[in-house]
Fold this sequence. Notes:
Elements: H1 32-37, H2 53-67, H3 81-93, H4 99-109, H5 113-162, E1 169-171, E2 178-179, E3 184-186, E4 193-195, H6 196-200, H7 210-213, E5 214-215
Antiparallel strand pairs: 1-2, 1-5, 3-4
The protein binds a DNA duplex through α5.
Amino acid sequence: MAVLPSSPSSLELTISMPGFASSQSIPSSGFKSEVICAVRNLDINQVPSGGVEEEWITMNMEDEEESSNGGPPRKKLRLTKEQSRLLEESFRQNHTLNPKQKENLAMQLKLKPRQVEVWFQNRRARSKLKQTEMECEFLKRRFGSLTEQNRRLQREVEELRAMKVGPPTVISPNSCEPLPASTLSMCPRCERVTSNAALKGPTKTATTTLSTKVAVPPL
DNA sequence: CTGCAGAGCTTCCTTACGTCA
DNA sequence: CGTGACGTAAGGAAGCTCTGC
């Protein structure tokens, strides 16, 4: 499950693991954006004019028997506004239904439990699609800003090179003596610059971050 | 305890239908 | 009126979990 940031300034992305918690009900609190997206165009679900709402549903429920065994082509059910509203409301509370809830909802909506089940399946798929689209947009924006940042830093590097500044000097944490940059390597785990000399010394945990120890001459 | 079969659920992909521009 | 795009209900395959034997 992915939770999108509530504000653009504090962006944090969690990518869902396929199949994870698939059979568990999802707490509605993590679905803020989801709920916003859940505002759907209910007009699509309008009933054919002429006040045949009940007939419309009944007809389709009877048809199913025939269409399932190679009979006439299946008819498509259109849910009424009220049915859609109730289903949406229920979906907002829970994205999955247990058999009891399904039965109750089906009875309340005058639908078959299978139809309620299918609606929830499709609804989950739609919200996931929406979520994926939003994540895609977010990643696109993030990529854009990172590219821009990369460009800026590259320019900065070029400027520094142009100034013909010598290699950065690192102060040893042990002796407080300047270390040549050639004795440095990047620690893959913490992504800090590690002094080889320091690691060979008495304290193995001695790491030196660039921001604090690299002596960069003032520009 | 372990292995297996079956039921019941899910996701994913697809098809078919209704509506609208 | 015909047509294509789009939204969505429903079918079916495959995978997972749970339960009983």
